[in-house]
Write a structure and sequence with these properties.
The complex is a heterotrimer of chains A (512), B (293) and C (540). Chain A is mostly helical and 512 residues long. Chain A has 20 helices and 2 strands. Chain A folds into 3 domains: 1-63; 77-245, no CATH class; 261-503, Orthogonal Bundle (MetI-like fold), CATH 1.10.3720.10. A two-stranded antiparallel sheet of chain A has the order 1-2. Chain C has 540 residues and is α+β, with helices and mostly antiparallel strands. In chain C, helix 9 packs across helix 17 (415-433). The longest helix of chain C has 23 residues, at 2-24. The radius of gyration of chain C is 30 Å and the shape is flat. The chains are: A mainly alpha (512), B mainly alpha (293), C alpha+beta (540). The B-C interface holds B 53-59, 88, 91-92, 95, 139, 143, 146-151, 153-154, 157, 229, 232-235, 246, 249-255, 257 and C 7-8, 11, 14-15, 18-19, 21-22, 25, 61, 63, 65-67, 94-100, 104, 107-108, 110-113, 268-270, 273-275, 284-285, 287-288, 291-292, 294.
Amino acid sequence: MKITDLEYLKLPKWRRALIKIAQFFISIPKAFLNLFVKIGRFFKKVGLAIGREIKDIILTFKNGDWKTRISYVIMGFGNITRGQVLRGLLFLLFEAVFLFFMFKPTGGLYWLSMLPSLGKEGPGKAYDPIYDTYVTTYNDNSFQILLYGVLTIFFIIAFIITWRMNVKQNKLAQQILDSGKPLKSGKDDLRSMVDDNFHKTLLALPLTGIIVFTVMPIVFMILVAFTNYDGTHDGYSNALFTWVGLENFNTMLGIGNGTKVYAATFGEILLWTLVWAFFATFTNYFLGMLVAMMINKKGIQFKKFWRTVLVMTIAIPQFISLLYVSKMFAQNGMVNQFLQSIGVLKGLDYIHFLDEATPARISVILINIWIGIPYLMLIATGILMNIPQDLYESAKIDGASGWKQYTKITLPYMLFITGPYLLTSFIGNMNNFNVIYLLTGGGPTNAAASTAAGSAGYTDLLITWLFKITTGAESQYYFASVIGILVFMIVAAISLIVYNLMPSVKNEEDFQ
Amino acid sequence: MKQNENTSLKKHMGIKAKTRVSNTIIYIILVLMTIIWLFPFVSIVLQSFRGGPVKGMTNEIIPSIWSLENYVALAKTDFFRWYLNTLIMALVVSVLQTVIVLCMSYTLSRFRFKMRKGLMRFMLILGMFPGMLTMIILYRVLKDLGLTQANAVPGLILVYVASSGMGYYVSKGFFDTIPKSLDEAARIDGATRAQVLTKIILPLAKPIVIYTVLTSFMAPWGDFVFARYISFGASKGMNVAVGLFNWLSKDQINSSYTMFCAGGVIVAIPVTIIFMCLQKYYVEGVTGGAVKG
Amino acid sequence: MKKLIALVLAVAMVLSLTACGGKTEPTTTAAPQPGETTTAAAPETTPGGTASPLAGTYQIKVWAPEAAVELTKKQINDFNSSNTDGIKFEATVEAVSEADAGTNVITDVDAAGDLYFFAQDQFARLVLAGGLAQLGQGAATIVKETNDAGAVAAASVGEDLYAYPLTADNGYFMYYDKSAVDAAHLGSLEDLIADCEAANKYFAMELENSAWYAISFFFGAGCVSEWTTDNDGKFIAVNDDINSDKGLIGAKGLQKLVTSKSHIESSDVGEFSKGAAIVVSGPWAYNDAKNILGDNLGAAELPSFTVDGQSYHMGNFSGYKLLGVKPTTDAARSASLHKLAQYLTSEAGQLERFQAIAWGPANKAAQDNAEVKANPSLAALAAQAPYSKVQGNIPGTWWDIGKVIATDIKDAADEAGLKAALESYNTKIQNVLKIDTTGFILVGAWNDWKNDDEAYRMEAKDGAFMFTLEVPQSDYMGGRIVVPGDWGTDRGCLIVTEGVDLLDQVGDPNNSDNNIVFKEAGTYVITYNEAANTITIVKK
């Protein structure tokens, strides 16, 4: 539907809104397409860059002097002979450590060689007639092979990058010396660490931590999705695990023959996760804003007190309060018994707060308001105070009612400023483990899903299901991993689309 | 003229009455909210003072027998060991994590280097993986280092601190609001980058430093999932959340619930007090984070 | 700033201290080797104290439920002073509930307690997960002789024993509030429900969350549900007739309770303080219940329910708690641990445990003890015994399948709905055993004629099925293509269209199964075209 600006402005408001919504959906496929184009471009860029690097490496060797050439094999040789002893020694040390690690017995080469099979010999059991007892011998450890295999690959990549740096540095040093200028000394290097290269110093520690304790585990867990690693194939104590290709994804998504229970369960839980995230985000958002506005209203006393009461609830760990709340809403909990005692409910009648599918879903959303409002109240308070007061003054002069002021000034301002926050909080709610786990534990049980791993319930989110599978009866880590990857894909898709559609993905430089 | 004055007066009166009505409604709502929000906490505090043979959950709010026995009983358990563990974790983590978050956010806010945009995007993507996924592997890695079960405390500190660089977002938003001209002026005066950070920026960043310390101090008190997975089967290595959580298991809840409440109160008191004192900074942090989101 | 530095220093110190503390921690794996492991003398015959090959100090970790921690510590000390082999254990006893032990062990067998208490329902999983060490012959004989038959079955896979029976009290019965329940109505489920509804009291029994309790009604109606494993602990057969007329009777009984307003979904005696008159639970809850109800606490066998004028006494599982020994690599350590486990589960050990924490013994001699017989909760369990079924080995997924049957029955509007619920249950349990019968596999000498061997599954490719088969040298190098689990002979040598020259015995009357018999060992690519029903064989 093509429409000119003028025609658009002439339309009644609701039509305009409809057109906007329609445009949003129309642009989704385009956004997806853009995404793929971007990914394609990214790989092309990477490919070209690698090509350039290789060319440069060859040229450097061709044009380099003997010092530079020796540095191709003995890292840091050029630096040392040219007077940059500190740098050179560091390069040399790194190379020595790398070679030692790779070639020592059960070192890098061993792990790499075992990686395709993930181990050859599982544990064995033998009867010892002397002691009349059974002893177990443990052999290969699939988990360790996978872990150290991944580490070795990381190490090799790091080595290649360092080696490349070494080549580049030699080229640079040679060029500088050729042009007759002096080289930077070790002292200069140290000084630049707190000055020109200060960012590298600052980032070194945090990034190392992230690579070792976030990136590597994620890479590792992605790999687990392609194995049969579970409680009875733990790779060491009972049986080795091995690569199974896409089998787990096929089971989970119901591709190919076999049971579709997983696909159905996954679909149902995903749908509920999205519904939950939507309601949990927006109920909190609007009610939190409302509460903030009520407290901030002129003429309301004890502002600080109201705020403090709400904020106090943030300070107390959720596992203490939420479990109590969940018991309050049980069939014979405080709330039902109170309602019975005042005669709202007759006899043993009760409200199915947490023990039937739909009521339980509504209940968790409502109880989540109890948790979420304090945060939103704080955020909204901060933002509301920043809205220029003259906007309201002029609106008042124009005779705008309170409601109009809200829809014309407050809401658009809030939405504009908190757009990115809404997105992050939507994603946060998709992964909101505590609330669901502590309130319902995912229950009530979903009969149809009972044969899928982890026996999912009606209020289970993907993340709580993942947890159940991980710690549950069968410990099917590979399914947990598959779900984790799928959650990532969904979250990434949502974020990318929303980010690209947001009216102004703010330019961060604007604020400085 | 007179009539005119009259109507305007009436209008004025109308607005006043309306305001009074709406304010009253707001007060009623706020009082109700206060009750709803505080009810669970007050109940838990009251339960912690419940004496008598019944130690499980009940529906009574005000105890029929008042007693301090639950607090006394805590001393006979490992509770204070868990408490100490958590306190150590909270202190160490809050210091180290603050340093790391500040390094990260300051760098990303102030420096313009080649990989900056790529790095930020990479971390955004990393953040989209559900953290629970890595629980198993982190357990194995820590186990290889000998930092699980009884030695879980340093292990947990390591993991909390190591991954804290990912949470740079809020404080980067804060640094973004400090004008860059300040840095440049200092640089012209011959200060190194490091001096700019320590002499100029840090003093200005007090709110965000306190915010970071506060949030990282609070986190270990409530972690009952990851900490439980790392320290299972070894009371020595548990944090207070894991220890208390175990008292709610089926076989212990009827003998330990009131003790759980007492423990919960002891956990909540210092955290709440610190939180109340530093609330101002927390608000600044949260607000800043949301705005810059 | 100074303060900050001081704080950092302090923290660093604490850190290094904890780290050091970690290092000095005795590691459980560092067991001292006994001097002579090659002596031919069997350790049992070694006379008291003199150089038994087991003598030594062992650091061990024991997982026991909170209630049993102190007692277990004491018992280990007693063992240290009383054993004649010179074994000395330095034990740390950690509180790990017997319900969680299985999950924790499976998370990391290596980090598990050397000895651990666990509930029977986890047994099958633990064996598969390699978390249990098999008992030696001497130990197995003693266990078999001294414990009741159900206990032995509970700890066995096939003929082999993998755990020591600790208690025989893992069953359930009815706790009730004497002030709220008419003693004359105790025998009838319908009367009890009516009483509860009239008095606005609750009847607590876990049905929708636990197959263990829900099965009660089906056992009452005379159903059976038994699983069989092979010697590796893998489930190979099930005998379950819940999907039958008898099952329907059970379902009708279950429906009466689960649809009553007075029913609450719980097995926690804590419900007594929240308005419950009846809680179905087990002996472990006795002390907690006593604390709440005092003298008003009653314990009785489960009631009967009436369907179509006939009355059926509700049944139950009689289960066991077991003591497991973690597998070890060191024979002496393993033997010593088994000695300790024997001691802890001996008649004396079980009686002592009964006296301290009222756990009902599994040992036959201990069961005959007068005190044991007089215990009210154990007496109720004993009264229930004629209606109980031994809880054998049950696959982990059954608990998930079985628990939803109550929900399905609750939602069923009529008899057809009930039948559908039972039908759905039956399909699910059959699926547990079911092998994937799609596609084809190669069965033959190369895989010992296993007709469900997934390793020899043919790969679907371009509308045909393909497999690269390695045929090792042997006297008979034959086999054929079958549907998994089937022995059909129509996909054999007679439909081979290409590569017949590689085969022997084609059309031979002795080869009545039409096996594809290779002339020589080697690697063959076998392709089966299902539509044309032809096989082609190419030698690589």
